[in-house]
C-alpha cells in the first residue's frame, strides 16, 4: 500500500496483498491495483485497476499484469524480422520448457505437459515435475535463460477466467519462443492468435498438441509465427499506458470529496467495521502465534 502522508492522506493506492484490509484504516478515496487473481470489493474501495473486463461507471479500469514485466519495467514487443527469426531458430537447443512451482486448479497445464512429453522431452525446470540434472531449478527471475534456448514454452495459467491473463504469456514472447497457452478464454481480444498456440481454441488438448507438433516439424511455419506481432492492435502498450495515465489524472484531478465512489453509510459502514475488526485480528499477537505453530 502507498500512503505518502500516513496520518491523513488525500488518497490511498493499495493492494489486496500484504496485511489484509490494511487500507481500511484510511478514510479517503481508495484506489486498488492487483495483477493477481482477485476481484474488487467495491463496498470497500472506490476505484479498481486490474484484469476484470467490467464496466462500473468510472470505478474500474482494465490494465492486466501482462502489460508489466520484469518487476514493473516496460516490456517491448516489436516482432522479429525474418532474418532475426531464422537466427533465433538456429540458437534453439531444446524443444520446450515447463517452469512452474505448483499444481493448477483446472489441470490443463499438467495435461499439456503430459501429452507433449509423449512426443519429446520437455525441460521441467521449476519445482513441479522437475527433471533437470541434479534437480536444478529456475525461478521467475532466472527462467528466461532457459526459455530462450527452447522452441516452445508452456505458459498456461493456473485458472481459466475471462480477462485474467498474467505475465506468463508475455514472458514466452519476451524469450523469443512460441508460447503454448491455456487460460483466459478471451485472450484473443488482446493477442494475435497467429503468434502463439492457444489450447483453449482447440476442441481438445490432443488437437492442440497435434498443432504444436506440426509447427515443430515445419521450420518455415515456426519462423512465420516468430515474426508475428504479439498483439492484435499495433502500439497496444502505448495506447494502454496512455489510457491508464488519463484514468489516474481523472481520479486525482477531482476534489477529494468528489472522488469518493464507494457507499459510506449504513450497511456499507457496517461492512467496513467488519473488515477493520478482521484486520485487527490478523495483526494480533495471539493470531500470529497460532499461525506460527500451524494452528
Written account of the structure:
The chain is an alpha/beta fold and 295 residues long. It folds into 2 domains: 12-68 and 238-292, 3-Layer(aba) Sandwich (Rossmann fold); 78-230, 3-Layer(aba) Sandwich (Rossmann fold). Helices cover 33% and strands 13% of the residues. It is built from 10 helices and 11 strands. The chain has helices at 82-91, 108-117, 144-147, 168-174, 205-217, 219-226, 236-252, 256-259, 267-283, 285-292, and strands at 12-14, 30-33, 47-50, 60-62, 68-69, 73-74, 94-98, 122-124, 150-154, 178-181, 197-198. It has a 5-stranded parallel sheet, with helices on both faces. A 4-stranded parallel sheet has the order 1-2-3-4, with no helix packed on it. Helix 1 packs across helix 6. It starts with 11 loop residues before the first strand and ends with a helix. The model is unreliable at 70-74 (pLDDT under 50).
CATH-defined fold name of the largest domain: Rossmann fold
Strand order of the largest sheet: 8-7-9-10-11
Number of strands: 11
Shape designation: globular
Distance between the terminal alpha carbons, to the nearest Å? 28 Å
Largest sheet: 5 strands, parallel
Second rung of CATH, namely the architecture of the largest domain: 3-Layer(aba) Sandwich
Mean pLDDT: 91
Q: Helical proportion?
A: 25-40%
Order of helices and strands: EEEEEEHEHEHEHEEHHHHHH
**In CATH's first tier, which class of the largest domain applies?**
Alpha Beta
The helix/strand class is: alpha/beta
Domains, number: 2
Rg from alpha-carbon coordinates = 22 Å
The portion of residues forming beta strands comes to: 5-15%
Write the CATH homologous superfamily of the largest domain: Glycosyl transferase family 10, C-terminal domain
Instruction: Count every helix, treating DSSP H or I runs of 4 or more residues as helices.
Output: 10
Amino acid at each position: 500500500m502507498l500512503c505518502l502522508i500516513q496520518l491523513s492522506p488525500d488518497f490511498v493506492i493499495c493492494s489486496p496483498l500484504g496485511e489484509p484490509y490494511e487500507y481500511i484504516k484510511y478514510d479517503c478515496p481508495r484506489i486498488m491495483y492487483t495483477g493477481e487473481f482477485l476481484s474488487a470489493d467495491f463496498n470497500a474501495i472506490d476505484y479498481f485497476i486490474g484484469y476484470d473486463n467490467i464496466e462500473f461507471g468510472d470505478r474500474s479500469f482494465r490494465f492486466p499484469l501482462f502489460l508489466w514485466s520484469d518487476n514493473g519495467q516496460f516490456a517491448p514487443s516489436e516482432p522479429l524480422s525474418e532474418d532475426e527469426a531464422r537466427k533465433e531458430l538456429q540458437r534453439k537447443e531444446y524443444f520446450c520448457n515447463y517452469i512452474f512451482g505448483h499444481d493448477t486448479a483446472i489441470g490443463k497445464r499438467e495435461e499439456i505437459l503430459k501429452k507433449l512429453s509423449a512426443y519429446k522431452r520437455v525441460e521441467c525446470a521449476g519445482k513441479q515435475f522437475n527433471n533437470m540434472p541434479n534437480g536444478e531449478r529456475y525461478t521467475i527471475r532466472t527462467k528466461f535463460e532457459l526459455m530462450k534456448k527452447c522452441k516452445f514454452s508452456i505458459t498456461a495459467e493456473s485458472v481459466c477466467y475471462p480477462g485474467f491473463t498474467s505475465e506468463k504469456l508475455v514472458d514466452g514472447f519476451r524469450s523469443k519462443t512460441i508460447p503454448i497457452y491455456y487460460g483466459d478464454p478471451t485472450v484473443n481480444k488482446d493477442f494475435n492468435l497467429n503468434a502463439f498456440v492457444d489450447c483453449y481454441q482447440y476442441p481438445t488438448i490432443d488437437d492442440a498438441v497435434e498443432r504444436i507438433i506440426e509447427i515443430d516439424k515445419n521450420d518455415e511455419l515456426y519462423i512465420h509465427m516468430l515474426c508475428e506481432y504479439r498483439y492484435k492492435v499495433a502500439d497496444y502498450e502505448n495506447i494502454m499506458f496512455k489510457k491508464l495515465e488519463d484514468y489516474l489524472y481523472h481520479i486525482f484531478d477531482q476534489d477529494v470529496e468528489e472522488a469518493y465512489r464507494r457507499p459510506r453509510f449504513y450497511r456499507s459502514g457496517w461492512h467496513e467495521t467488519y473488515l477493520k475488526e478482521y484486520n485487527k485480528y490478523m495483526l494480533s499477537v495471539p493470531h500470529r502465534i497460532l499461525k506460527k505453530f500451524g494452528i
